Amino acid sequence: MVVKFLSFLHKTLTQSPKSKSLYASYFQNHSLSQDQYDPPFSLAKKPKPKNTTKPKETPAPNNDPRLPVKSDLPFDFRYSYSESNPAIEPIGYREPKRFSPFGPGRLDRKWTGTAAPTQLETDMEKLMEERNRVLGEPLTEEEVAELVERYRHSDCSRQINLGKGGVTHNMLDDIHNHWKRAEAVRIKCLGVPTLDMDNVCFHLEDKSGGKVIYRNINILLLYRGRNYGPENRPVIPLMLWKPYAPIYPKLVKNVADGLTFEETKEMRNRGLNSLPLMKLTRNGVYVNVIERVRDAFETEEVVRLDCKHVGMSDCKRIGVKLKDLVPCVPILFKDEQIILWRGKRNQEMESSAA
Questions:
Q1: Is residue 26 in a domain?
Q2: Burial of residue 103, with CB atoms counted within 10 A of its CB: 0-12 exposed, 13-18 middle, 19 or more buried
């Protein structure tokens, strides 16, 4: 087709002007396509009308009149209340202290790396009076039984899951959100916090102002009080992200206190070669672990806990709690195994008896 067109073009160019006009008409008829999807030239774009409306000015976060948030809660804000010990000072931080998990300029408290301490002096007598006023008269046995029957079942819609983080700061806001439409909230506890349920109950009551009216293994019911008003709930600023955990002193020493290096090595080998006292599962219920370890220490000097599939971070959390609650001395964390030594308890008892 192209060859024929070129030959025709050559003939028309070499002919007279009359034939040239014939060529122009032929070229126009054959070059312009009649197909609407194949135009001979690109269509000109219509100019867009200019937008005369001015964009709405959004206030900058730092210029928001609602910020910084001021809260009258009488305790220091922490990521976890039940799984942290304010008495132990960290030896380092994994992020600068200026990075507050509440966001820049969103809280009237200064973040210290582990907590946001309160700047107000707390009148404990006035605080207890207000809490007693909200709780009102104690519930009768019939009222408690009615609330338990309503909220204790596993299909209850008013439930909060408490995991290895324990009683976290944002959980307080979830509790008050449930209390808007329900008298009590069901809390299901799993993982490391179940080692010390008394500690969990204390922080739930202390930080939320409610009352634990039911406790069965790892299930709790937290009651809001007779005179609770959702419109008078405290201001709880939310944490926007989980802060990095600080660096604490080493839990397991190379040489245990009261032992030589050879004795410590022998204790570790004995623990690794002994049968496990218990096998712990991930996010399990550990309410009976402390009693089992205490009973084992009556006859054994070294105890091994099999924490396979639990995770090394949870193993260390378990070891820290057992160290204070049993009490005992963790001497080894290896391959998700915890080796516990009861310490020189017998010698101290003999010396005190003498």
A1: no
A2: middle
- Low pLDDT (below 70) residues in the chain: 1-46, 50-65, 345-354
For residues 193 and 299, state if they share a domain. no
Is 134 in the same domain as 175? yes
Closest CA to 272 of 339, 322, 330: 339
Q: Based on the domain organization, do 127 and 260 belong to the same domain?
A: no
Work out the percent of the chain whose per-residue pLDDT is above 70: 80
Query: Do 276 and 110 touch, CB atoms closer than 8 A?
Result: no
Neighbours of 111 (CB within 10 A): 18
Show the tokens assigned to 101. 């998990």
Domain count, the chain: 2
Q: Which CATH number is 135's domain given?
A: 3.30.110.60
Q: What digits encode the pLDDT tens for the residues 185-231?
A: 999 999 999 999 999 999 999 999 999 999 999 999 999 999 999 99
Alpha helix (H) residue ranges in 2-104: 2-14, 17-31
> What pLDDT score was predicted for residue 69?
85
Domain containing 325 equals 250-341
pTM of the predicted structure, to 2 decimals: 0.77
**156, part of any domain:** yes
Query: Any residues with CB less than 8 A from the CB of 206 and at least 6 apart, and which?
Result: 75
